Amino acid sequence: MGVIEVLGRFQSGQRILIYENPAGRGVEFSDELAVSSSDSVFGFLEGSVESNGSTSSDGVDDMFDVEDEEGVFGSKFEENKSFWDDQHNLLKATLCRTSSIEMGIRNVTKDAVKELQAKVNYCTCCNKSVTGNKNCRNCLMREVSCRLSNAGYNTAICRSKWRSSPQTPSGEHTFLDVIDSSNPVKSEVRVIIELNFRAEFEMARASDEYNQLVNRLPEIFVAKIDRLKPIIKILCTGAKKCMKDKKMHMGPWRKQKYMQAKWFSSNCQRKVEVNYVPLNVAQLKKTTTNHARASMLTMALLGVPRKVVAAA
Question: DSSP characters for 144-170?
Answer without folding.
Answer: HHHHHHHTT--EEEEEEEE---SSS--
